[in-house]
Structures are given as C-alpha cells and as structure tokens.
C-alpha cells in the first residue's frame, strides 16, 4: 500500500514542480474559409489547377517549419485551396521547388510515404483527438490514415476511396485531391467547423513544414490544428458500399504414402460479400458473409521456450478497419480486452491419434459471418459493436483400412464486443466502457460407434465422432471502464481503467484454466491460490492508474500502477500473457527541442519499475536509461542500459515454485545511415549478462535497404541470436512422490533473415515479395534439478547430476538420483532444431479505386532439423533440399459505391 501512496503523492506534486519550466507560448489558431462550388463545374482531377472553379477562393500559405528547426521559415513554401460541393471536398496544392529536377518521385505501395509528399489532416469531429489524413506523393502514390490518441496513433489500415493526380512544372509540383464526403465522418450542423492541418515533406532537406504552427513541446498533434470554416449546409453522406469477392486457390504439397488427406494437391473455390452501410454519416455498419480472411503476408516465424503464447498483429481487413475504437489496452504491453485474432483461430480441440491413422484437421476456424457497427458522433460519442459467429469444426481421422471417425476440434462459437467512449469538458476528458462475451456450444462429451448394433443406422456420423472439447470454457465475459482527463492546455493528464472478467465451464475446463501458465494456481509455495477441482467459474480484475506531463517545455514524465489479479482471464477473446501481478512504474524524458550543429533532434529517457504478486512477494525491480539522437546529416544512434538487481519469477518452472534469477545487466546500441538515401543500413546489438553466468543473451541485427531506381526497393534484415542459460527449464518428474523440476544448460542459437522486394509498375499496380528463413537450435547439457529455487547463489539453487546418476540411451535420459542402481525417473531428450521458411509473392492491382485483383504465390517449409548440425547445414537439409508446400491464389474484388 505504501507504494500506491508514493505514486499518488508523485502525481499530485510533480506537475506543480515542473510547471514553472513550461515554455510553450500560446499559438494563434489559423482559419481557412472555404466556399461552395454552387453552379460551377467541379475541377477535373488532373493535377493542373487550371479550372475556373478554383478561382472562387484564395490561396493560403505562409507555412512554417516544424522539423527540424521549428518556428523558422521553410526552405520551400507551400500553398493550398479548398472548395466543396454536396458530395466532395476538393483540395489543390502548389508545392514550390526552385530545383524541380531534384523532386524525389519514388514509387511505393499505398501508404509507403516515399519521397516528397504533402498531406491534409481533417479533424471532422473537432474533438481535438482524432482525424483523417490524406497524403499524396509527388509520384502520385496515395496514403491514408486514421489519426487517434491526439496524434500518438496513425492507423494505415484505413483505406477510403478518394481521387488524386500530380504534375511537375517549372515552379515545383502540384496536386489535386477529391475526397468523397461519405469517406469522412461528421455531424449534422448548419456550418461545419473542422480542425485543419496541411503538412509537407521536403525530401532533400528532410524538412517538414506546416500551415498551422505546432511547437515541438506541444502536448499533441490534433489538439493544435487550425480550423476550416465555410462548410455551409453540407448534408451528411450515408455511405453504402458493397464488395463481392471471389477466390480460387490451388495447393500443392509433398504426398504422403497411404495418407488419403495428403495426396499432393488440393483445389478450393470460395466467394463472399462485404458491405458497408452508413446508418448515419457518423456510424457505419460493416457486414461480411462467408468472409475470406486469408492474409496476404505470413506471420513471422517464432519459437518460445518459456511456454507463453506469442502475439501476432492483426492483418485481416475486416478487423483492422476502425480497430482503434475497439482498442482497450488496460495494463502494459499487449494486454488487451479484445484481440481479434481469437476469432477464426486455429481449432483448439485435441485429437487422440493412434498408430497408423491419418488426420485431416482444419487449419482455421470458419467465420460464418460477422457484423461491425462503429463510428463517432458529432457530440463526442465513440461507438463500436462487433458480432461474429464461427462454425463447428470437425477433423476426420482415417486408419490404414479406410475406417473413419470424426473429432470435434472447435465448437460453434459466438463472439461479441461492445465499446463506447464519451468526450466532454471541451474535449479534454473522456469516459468509456467495454463489454465482451464469448459463448461456445460445447454440447455433451459423447462417442458414437456406427458398428454398434444399438446405433441408429440412419445416423449421419461416419464411424465414430468424439467431442474433445472438455478443456474449453463454455462462456467468458469481461467488462471495463476507462477515463482520461487533461488540464492546463492538455499539458498534464491522468488516466485509468479497470477490467472485470468472469469465465464459466465444466470442472475439467476450470481446473485446466487454473493450471495454465497464465495463472499457475498449482504452485506449491503459493499462499494465496490453490487448484480447486470443483470450481466451475473464475472471476478476476485488472486495471491501471497513471498520470503525468505530456507537453510544455522539455520535460515529459509519468508514474502509475497497474494490476492483474490471479483469476483474471481474458484469452477467450482478449490477450493476457500473465495474471497475478502488481506493477509500479515511473518514467521521465528530456527533449532537446532546438537543433544544433551536431544534431537535428535528441532525447533521453529513464524508467524504473518494480513488481509484486498478490501473495505479497517482491519479485522484481528494474532501472533503465536510453538516449536517441538524429545527427545533422540524418544518421542516427540509439543506445540504452539497464540493471535488474532483483528478478523472481512465478512461471519459469511452469507450475513449480517461485524461482530466482541472478541479477542482470542489459544494454543495446543501434546506429544507422540516412534513410532517405538510395542505400541505407542499420547495425545493432542488444544483449544481457547475469551474475555467475546464470544466463546471457546476444542479438546481432543488420538491416539493409536499397532502392536502385524509383520503382524498385529491396530490403534484407538478417538477425542472429544466442541464448545460453544454465537453468533452462526442461520438465517436471516424480521422485518417490516428490516433484522434481529439471533444468539444464542450453546453448540456443537462432538465425533468421527477412527479405522484401517491392516493384511498383505504377501507383496502383505493384509486385511485392516477402520471404523469411528461420532456424532455431537448442542443445542441452549439464542437467540438474532444482534444490532451493530462491537461493541467491546459483550453486545452491540447483544441483548438478553426477556422471553416475545420469545415463542416455534411445533418445531418453535415465536418472538414478539415490544411486541405488535402479532408475528413479526418466525424461525425453529435449534437444531441438526448428526450421521454417515462409514466403509470399503478391501482385496487387487496384484497377479502379477500391476494387482490386490479387495474384498470390505462397510457399512454406517447416521441419525438424538435427540439433547436432550447425545452423547452415540444417538450412540446406530442411529448406533447400526439401519439397515445399505451395499455395496459388487469385482473389478479385469489386467495390460498388451507391
């Protein structure tokens, strides 16, 4: 409790201590007044700016430099005009350049932001937190993003329909933009007043200039915009879009002799419909029927020896659009009440496969349909509702005689998410809430044998069907409230949230939940939790409270606390890595706002945190400092150092007692060249060392980027990691009724290299290649058992087996711990070599705005190498010399805008 008191005192006293150092002066808000076209013909979007309709308004300019030397005249000036009619907003830009032959016209995929560009940001809700951004490069490539968190989050997954064209002439370059009013959201009002900003990148000098000055010490981006006036009597546009799609897919893979499900190839044909309906101009209903949620780009390869799940970012279009509205990160890292990749996940049920049997198991859960209702109203309500139903998935098992049985591996499941936020206090405060529900139709465990004379001969079941879902929870609910309050021109803030979860299921399911690594109720030394095999539900809480300074002057800081109770469970529809933790944290940052002869910008950041569990154990404290500097020549350096004098973990022994690591120091150093150049590179290292050589970590990073000409870019990112650890967990065994926790010295090495090639035929026709070989090898030696898991001395923490206690044969270790000549227990050889290669070759053609054709070739190889071989030998044996699995896919969409 004393730590909470200290934090609250800090939140109250520190803002007043530093307020005298604020240097932000009041910046006058600029206003641009647009006019309607009325009876005039709208401008033709060809980049020429020669239509008479542009003459009804004046140019506005006088841009000011924003980076690197804020509040100084820019190297080149910019001006723009805005006009409108009842359906479109039109923008014209004149970007002056005294050396037009040096304008950088690099091509890229959409949202690539390469070369010279200019963008308009529109805060159509005028909430000073969110906005819509439309960017056009000198080469004609579009970029569009939804801005949230007052400029701290730019979501490039938003892909509206809009039109643009550019031209280069003797004065520089020009652009014209036509934005359908149906693609942005605004409330009904006689005169609209929107937040407005225009931002230009002058590539040669890596300089940003803006229409509305925003000081470097400002507390945000959107809150500092100027204003757009003159939008009179425009009617909210009710959006109606229908997008049917068709997909053909052909898979090839190595044939397996005798396996009827792996005969070498498979053909699939699929089709469906996506629709977007504007209920009002503020709120949109997204519908999908039989959706195609295949990813164009594969997830990166990864392997986790700690037993925890790995977080992968969402890449499916239906879920990424408006995802900011559903976001509810409540603690730190990736913890989130809603993690959309739970919907359509890999089937979770187990299969009791016998020798000589072959399995046809679905790789993903089929999404029968989904609907999403989302948007933000003029009066400050953000609303999001998502409903989705996934199909019951059944695996087919066939033996060598052709007899079949079936296993239910995923039940019919309903997912629901509701999210709401309300702005008030002149948009300086919001309060929100979230509710989620997951309900599974588990039925009853059953097994039916069609050869049994008592079985109904008309049964549709083939052979035997098994329900293997006893470990799944029947239902899961979560809810929470959150808030944020800003004051003193948004320089200071306090925010917090709270989460409540409740899961229900069979005794088997809830007992399994208690013993998951996330909870670890079976820990023998835990005084506050224990496994109760008779429970059928769990209820937990989580949340955070944090406050600090986000703008004004050179200092930024915050401090706070978050917690996750032992019974908190969110992984049915959210993401929760670990429960049973209370964390106190404090951060401070110092900004070097004015460029010098050495650097363009720089900052220093320091952090401290400590953690506890709900049993009162003081588990960790960490100190960390890092610095970043961007030199005057646009080269850069990032470096950091940290110290962990106290490290205890409740999860390392995966159900065993609390474990202590030796104290650790860690550091990183990265530096790189000017990213604007045709060739750029990054070199980096990060690593750690623990006392008594308990463990260490080394990661070496090289990133190479090359753009030989405007249409082609290449990148290579090899990484090599070493993870030696003298106490890597292996397994738990029974020794005369006493649990033995086995660890060992592991020599783990991992090599990966992502490769990307982008070729842009024109802004709407691109070819992209992504490939990544991944190899991880672990060799275990010096096996030992845990003696005193919390001892400070490593030699007391574990006891090594002597040579006369351990023997190895037939890929199994046998232990005679008491040296009586009899084997006390055994465990399998844990050595491993995991090898994987994934690649995608994608041709994307946006043949009309919003309608696309994809040609995709995906290739993958996954195998187990020889742990005794070096990494490159496994690469050759398991990837280069192995027949890959191939997927050839054609997907076509057509977007009707009504």
From TrEMBL:
Domain of life of the native organism: Bacteria
Example of a GO MF term: hydrolase activity, hydrolyzing O-glycosyl compounds
Boundaries of every Carbohydrate-binding domain copy: 45-198
UniProt domain DUF5916: residue ranges: 239-438, 475-894
UniProt keyword terms in alphabetical order: Signal
Matching Pfam families: CBM9_1 (PF06452), DUF5916 (PF19313)
Protein's UniProt name: Carbohydrate family 9 binding domain-like
Annotated signal sequence range: 1-20
Organism encoding this protein: Aquimarina spongiae
UniProt entry tagged with the keyword Lyase: no
């Amino acid at each position: 409790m004393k730590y909470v008191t200290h934090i609250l005192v800090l939140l109250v006293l520190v803002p007043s201590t530093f307020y005298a150092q604020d240097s932000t002066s009041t910046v006058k808000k600029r206003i641009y007044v647009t006019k309607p076209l009325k009876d005039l013909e709208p401008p033709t979007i060809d980049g020429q700016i020669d239509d008479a309709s542009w003459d009804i308004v004046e140019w506005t300019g006088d841009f000011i430099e924003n980076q690197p030397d804020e509040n100084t005249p820019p190297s080149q000036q910019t001006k723009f005009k805005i006009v409108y009619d009842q359906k479109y907003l039109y923008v014209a830009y004149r970007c002056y350049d005294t050396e037009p032959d040096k304008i950088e016209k690099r091509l890229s995929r959409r949202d690539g932001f390469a070369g010279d560009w200019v963008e308009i940001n529109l805060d159509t809700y005028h909430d000073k937190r969110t906005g819509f951004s439309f960017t056009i490069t000198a080469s004609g490539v579009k970029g569009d993003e939804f801005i949230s968190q007052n400029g701290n989050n730019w979501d490039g997954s938003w892909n509206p329909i809009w039109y643009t064209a550019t031209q280069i002439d003797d004065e520089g370059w020009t652009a014209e933009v036509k934005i359908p009013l149906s693609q942005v959201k605004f409330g009904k009002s006689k005169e609209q007043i929107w937040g407005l900003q225009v931002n230009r990148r002058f590539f040669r000098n890596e300089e940003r200039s803006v229409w509305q000055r925003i000081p470097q010490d400002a507390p945000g981006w959107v809150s500092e915009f100027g204003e757009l006036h003159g939008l009179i009597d425009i009617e909210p546009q009710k959006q109606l879009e229908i997008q049917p799609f068709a997909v053909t897919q052909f898979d090839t893979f190595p044939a397996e002799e005798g396996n009827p499900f792996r005969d070498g190839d498979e053909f699939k044909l699929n089709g469906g419909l996506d629709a977007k309906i504007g209920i009002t101009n503020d709120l949109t209903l997204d519908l999908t029927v039989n959706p195609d949620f295949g990813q164009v780009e594969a997830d990166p390869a990864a392997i986790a020896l700690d037993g925890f799940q790995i977080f992968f970012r969402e890449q499916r279009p239906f879920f990424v659009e408006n995802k900011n509205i559903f976001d509810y990160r409540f603690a730190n890292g990736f913890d989130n009440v809603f993690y959309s990749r739970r919907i359509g996940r890999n089937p979770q049920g187990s299969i009791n496969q016998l020798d000589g049997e072959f399995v046809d198991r679905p790789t993903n859960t089929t999404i029968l349909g989904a609907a999403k209702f989302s948007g933000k109203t003029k009066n400050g309500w953000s609303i999001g509702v998502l409903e989705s139903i996934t199909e019951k998935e059944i695996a087919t098992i066939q033996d060598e005689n052709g007899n079949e049985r079936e296993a239910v591996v995923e039940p019919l499941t309903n997912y629901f998410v509701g999210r709401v936020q309300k702005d008030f206090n002149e948009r300086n405060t919001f309060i929100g809430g979230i509710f989620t529900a997951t309900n599974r139709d588990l039925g009853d465990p059953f097994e039916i044998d069609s050869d049994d004379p008592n079985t109904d001969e008309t049964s549709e079941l083939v052979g035997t069907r098994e329900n293997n879902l006893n470990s799944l929870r029947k239902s899961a609910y979560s809810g929470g409230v959150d808030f944020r309050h800003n004051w003193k021109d948004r320089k200071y803030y306090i925010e917090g949230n709270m989460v409540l979860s409740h899961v229900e299921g069979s005794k088997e399911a809830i007992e399994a939940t208690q013993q998951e690594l996330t909870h670890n109720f079976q820990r023998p030394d835990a005084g506050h939790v224990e496994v109760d095999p008779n429970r059928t539900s769990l209820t937990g809480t989580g949340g955070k409270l944090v406050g600090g300074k986000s703008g004004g002057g050179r200092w930024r800081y915050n401090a706070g606390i978050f917690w996750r109770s032992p019974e908190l469970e969110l992984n049915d529809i959210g993401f929760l890595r670990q429960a049973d933790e209370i964390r106190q944290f404090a951060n401070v940052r110092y900004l070097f706002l004015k460029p010098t002869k050495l650097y363009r910008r720089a900052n220093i950041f320091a952090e401290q945190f400590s953690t506890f569990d709900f049993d009162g154990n003081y588990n960790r404290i960490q100190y960390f400092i890092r610095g970043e500097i961007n030199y005057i020549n646009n080269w850069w350096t990032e470096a950091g150092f940290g110290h962990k004098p106290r490290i205890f973990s409740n999860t390392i022994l995966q159900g065993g007692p609390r474990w202590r690591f030796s104290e650790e120091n860690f550091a990183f150093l990265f530096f790189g060249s000017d990213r604007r150049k045709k060739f750029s590179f990054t070199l980096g290292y990060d690593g750690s060392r623990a006392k008594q050589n308990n463990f260490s970590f080394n990661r070496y990073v090289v990133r190479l980027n090359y753009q030989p000409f405007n249409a082609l870019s290449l990148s290579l990112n090899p990484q090599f990691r070493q993870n030696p650890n003298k106490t890597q967990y292996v397994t738990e065994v029974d020794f005369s009724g006493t649990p033995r926790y086995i660890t060992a010295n592991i020599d783990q090495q991992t090599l990966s290299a992502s490769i990307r090639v982008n070729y842009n035929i024109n802004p709407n026709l691109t070819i992209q290649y992504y490939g990544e070989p991944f190899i991880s090898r672990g060799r275990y030696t010096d096996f030992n058992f845990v003696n005193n898991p919390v001892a400070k001395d490593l030699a007391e923490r574990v006891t090594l087996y002597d040579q006369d206690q351990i023997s190895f044969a037939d890929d199994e270790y046998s232990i005679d711990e008491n040296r009586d000549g009899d084997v006390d227990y055994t465990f399998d050889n844990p050595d491993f070599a995991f090898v994987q290669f994934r690649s995608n070759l994608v041709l994307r053609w946006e043949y009309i705005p919003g309608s696309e054709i994809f040609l995709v070739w995906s290739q993958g190889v996954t195998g187990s190498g020889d742990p005794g071989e070096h990494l490159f030998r496994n690469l050759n044996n398991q990837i280069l010399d192995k027949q890959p699995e191939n997927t050839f896919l054609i997907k076509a969409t057509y977007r009707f805008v009504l």
